[in-house]
């Protein structure tokens, strides 16, 4: 044991910082550890804010307490962890030569300087705010800090607000949208790009849009905010780029975050290509005595190999642990990178993703990918199974799984976790078609959704199935393309709901006897589908065998069709 | 296209057989496919039997119909799949030279012979029945066939039975136990060995035992059935090896199955070392024109490399698909092996496993393993998270994950699926500590249970934590060992419930100030724990740092303690 205790300073007390500090403490009981936090609270469960705002729980302390119910305040850090936690305190300068941090006590303005042997930068990220007139109005907020959560919870509790607008159609935007809806507030989500939820490919994103609308909120895509309208300093509406005015008393800005790198940058620490602090796999910055963790850093994608930003609470914790270990025992722990996995609850749907979407895969340089969209139940119908719709993305040459998106009322989270681990293990479609997963009727189909998904991908990669997405079919229909569309469901299902795109109904069981009703020109494009397109696929195999040469299956079937249907 | 269609015969119509036939049909529209099934039903969802018996659903047809609601009878197979399905038909002989199968129509006794180019054996397995007096009594049954399911469902519907005994404490035994309990029948499970649920290690198994008892049923371990007692041909009780007599009107035998290999064996097809039909990775038997799939075969464990039997419905389906593909296109699909993954619902608990338990790992020749038991919530407390208790097994030298067991009211199935995929990818503890899984409060903690589990394992492998299981602690206590036991929870928690094993309470936050109360002999064994042993672990780090040299953590804490507690 050295006579001089190791001096560790951690800047940032929200998630990654406290984790690094706590882990360092467990590694070295004798280190002097100081945590500098600008906000009044420490170690907040910020991913829980939407559920506090939406009324899933009412006790605010649950956001800042340990599993045993103790509030994680400076006294707790002092007692349980022997960490000096300074709150309402802002780090203003890092002197890498003197190895000191200067900080200011925010209530008093008093400046102090503290020396460090090892420093952790966990300065987080700041919500972006569009630079439009009215952004400073009362009623315009984000959902990023405890103060934001308190303010939005007050909106719920006061029951005065009737209309709200959420600016930004990403994960946080829709979590906020649901929370406001649960508070009885009519909410409209505004998304500047053509599509909500950018980590999804368009068809799945459109299905989520339909689901949100069915629960009350409105969504406007392809239209940004031009101005926030005020009256006496108070928000009264939002004006869109196209001139539309939406009256509202509350606007929540959720258009993303930018990493807080100023302090690091001012100290000459290297910033990476996508704007976060650059770190190696030990979470070490360009200064080997300084680590950085959480929303202020950039990570390496283990799928694309590229630098990416991934401001997620789980990664902040994992990185904090790695840094905490290396603070005491340099090079003893590694954070190799991420897959880019996420999930979000939106009313009765879960919306999850891992790895790359088709468009992200192409952008990342995978120029020969295959995709497979499937729909199906999560558990058997006799156990009241719920729907899952997903899209798997694989590299065509190697068969490697690159990404998976999954949505629906079914158990999405399990399927995304499963595929995330498959991607982490660099598994191929060949590996996944025979995955040995836990099967019993309360938890899975005999062939689980992720295996079915890999099987459909396998059929496509082996040339046994040619697929079209719902959008591709819709485009053909809208363009008046010369194709024959075949619905292979039962007459009963057809009566209940149909696509109304000029389709012909021939139930699968009758198909072999009714081949004469199909186009005589065997090269004509024939598109088959059923409820989930399993019978559609079986029908396609029959047509292939009888000499039709341009037979395709509309993947995911009727339930994955995101456009209007006839009833 | 050959002028002569391929002749495919499939023996067995329950799960693997129909799958092979249906896949072969999709691969080759022109093949002549015949399915020979002894039972009257086809393609039964036999894993759903306990839920039909227990009243989760009432419509028997749901066990034999497609997702679109069509009963999979011979007419359906004929129409939708152009497969000739012969039910109530028993295959009696395979002539490998003539390449024919002889079968008998069971109602008429008429014999016929059918030629094949490719044959699939999917003869399944037969429930074992102990050879004890009374085994033929009315009231003694298994839950294996549709007829069994019908009979047990009738027991529920007639509401006459008040007491039942389940013989065998495995997966099926407990599914049946729950179903009978839900039917209002007092049920006792008899297990000959010392432990229920043999795929679990003893501590976790004991926790499940406690859970079952809390729901009403009784469990007797270490005691076999000596005799089934009858009166006028009707079951009236079960007599155990130790002489105990349990009155009951129904006894369900669930002591495992043996693969049906007679037909294959008689035809000179090779049987493997663990008694199933031996197949290669194409599901091909020792005769290259004959495939075998489902409960009658043995598989290769991808973890141990050994031959194992794994009679599970999901694997039957996967194998059926592989065989179906190879029937038409030899060598085009592989089934490399299994992990040994399973799950079962037992009242409010799910009980799951993947890979090897500690005892199975040792038996399989892994002589240097490490284990980590943890408990924790599946999702945050503020989202009403539920408990998970799990045990991870890893190879100490390579860090490779070998197995995972997980039980509890929380979402077990997701965690088992996640680790199953990690094992499939041959991931190590190092890979798993930083897994990028889908995090949002409705679905996971910021650090998911499986990651925490890997982190604890990492701490143990790196020598930062020495652990003891609850059983190991209990043994020490019972033997009067000289150790100091330290509970680091709060006084409030201690008041509520305590282990009562001579422990001293020092809350973690006070530990540094009260080190004087600990044994002065720094080499004395000190065992710490808290509710889940996170604070216990933090306390251990403090004691290590202050010179105690024999400090251990009781893994899983109070919630994983399977023995009596004081309240």
Automatic annotation (TrEMBL), chains A, B:
Q: Name one Pfam family in it.
A: Pyr_redox_dim
Task: Tell me the CDD domains matching this sequence.
Answer: RHOD
Q: Boundaries of each Rhodanese domain copy? A: 479-567
Under the heading InterPro entries, the entry gives:
FAD-bd_OxRdtase (IPR050260), FAD/NAD-bd_sf (IPR036188), FAD/NAD-binding_dom (IPR023753), FAD/NAD-linked_Rdtase_dimer_sf (IPR016156), Pyr_nucl-diS_OxRdtase_dimer (IPR004099), Rhodanese-like_dom (IPR001763), Rhodanese-like_dom_sf (IPR036873)
Enumerate the Gene3D superfamilies for this protein. Answer: FAD/NAD(P)-binding domain (3.50.50.60), Rhodanese-like domain (3.40.250.10)
Could you list the residue ranges forming a coiled coil in this record? none
The cofactor required is: FAD
Keyword list (alphabetical) reads: FAD, Flavoprotein, Oxidoreductase, Redox-active center
MF term (GO), any:
oxidoreductase activity
Family indicated by similarity: Belongs to the class-III pyridine nucleotide-disulfide oxidoreductase family.
- The protein's name is NADPH-dependent 2,4-dienoyl-CoA reductase/sulfur reductase-like enzyme
């Amino acid at each position: 044991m050295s006579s001089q205790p190791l001096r560790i300073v951690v800047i940032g007390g929200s998630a990654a910082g406290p984790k690094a500090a706590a882990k360092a403490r467990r590694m070295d009981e004798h280190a002097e550890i100081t945590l500098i936090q600008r906000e009044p609270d420490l170690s907040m469960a910020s991913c829980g804010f939407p559920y506090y705002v939406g009324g899933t729980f009412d006790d605010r302390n649950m956001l800042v307490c340990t599993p045993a119910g103790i509030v994680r305040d400076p006294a707790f850090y002092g007692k349980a962890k022997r960490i000096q936690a300074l709150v309402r305190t802002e780090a203003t300068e890092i002197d890498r030569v003197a190895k000191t941090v200067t900080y200011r006590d925010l209530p008093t303005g008093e400046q102090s300087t503290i020396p460090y042997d090892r420093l952790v930068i966990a300065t987080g990220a700041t919500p972006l705010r569009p630079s439009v007139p009215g952004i400073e109005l009362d009623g315009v907020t984000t959902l990023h800090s405890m103060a934001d959560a308190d303010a939005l919870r007050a909106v719920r509790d006061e029951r005065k607000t009737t209309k709200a607008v959420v600016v930004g159609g990403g994960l946080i935007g829709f979590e906020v949208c649901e929370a406001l809806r649960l508070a009885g507030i009519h909410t409209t989500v505004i998304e500047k790009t053509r599509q909500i939820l950018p980590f999804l490919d368009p068809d799945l994103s459109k299905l989520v849009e339909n689901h949100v609308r069915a629960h009350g909120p409105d969504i406007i895509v392809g239209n940004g905010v031009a101005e926030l309208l005020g009256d006496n300093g108070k928000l009264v509406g939002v004006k869109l780029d196209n001139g539309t005015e939406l009256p509202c008393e509350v606007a929540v800005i959720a258009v993303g975050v930018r990493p807080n790198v100023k302090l690091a940058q001012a100290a000459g620490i290297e910033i990476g290509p996508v704007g976060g602090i650059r770190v190696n796999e030990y979470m070490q910055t360009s200064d080997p005595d300084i680590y950085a963790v959480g929303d202020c850093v950039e990570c390496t994608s283990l799928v694309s190999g590229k630098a990416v930003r991934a401001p997620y609470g789980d990664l902040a914790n994992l990185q904090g642990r790695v840094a905490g270990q290396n603070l005491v025992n340099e090079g003893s722990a590694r954070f190799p990178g991420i897959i880019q996995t996420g999930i979000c609850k939106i009313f009765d749907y879960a919306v999850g993703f891992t790895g790359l979407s088709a468009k992200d895969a192409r952008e990342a340089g995978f120029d020969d990918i295959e995709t497979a969209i499937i729909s199906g139940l999560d558990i058997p119908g006799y156990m009241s199974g719920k729907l899952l719709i997903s899209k798997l993305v694989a590299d065509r040459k190697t068969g490697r799984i690159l990404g998976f998106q999954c949505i629906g009322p079914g158990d999405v989270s399990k399927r995304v976790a499963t595929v995330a681990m498959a991607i982490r293990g660099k598994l191929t479609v060949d590996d996944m078609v025979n995955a040995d997963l836990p099967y019993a009727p309360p938890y899975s189909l005999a062939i689980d959704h992720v295996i079915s998904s890999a099987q459909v991908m396998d059929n496509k990669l082996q040339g046994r199935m040619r697929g079209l997405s719902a959008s591709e079919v819709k485009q053909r229909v809208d363009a008046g393309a010369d194709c024959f569309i075949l619905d292979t469901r039962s007459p009963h299902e057809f009566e209940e709901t149909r696509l109304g795109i000029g389709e012909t109904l021939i139930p699968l069981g009758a198909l072999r006897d009714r081949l004469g009703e199909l186009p005589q020109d065997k090269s004509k494009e024939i598109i088959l589908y059923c409820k989930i397109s399993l019978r559609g696929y079986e029908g396609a195999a029959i047509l292939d065998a009888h000499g039709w040469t341009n037979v395709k299956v509309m993947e995911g079937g009727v339930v994955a069709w995101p456009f209007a249907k006839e009833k």
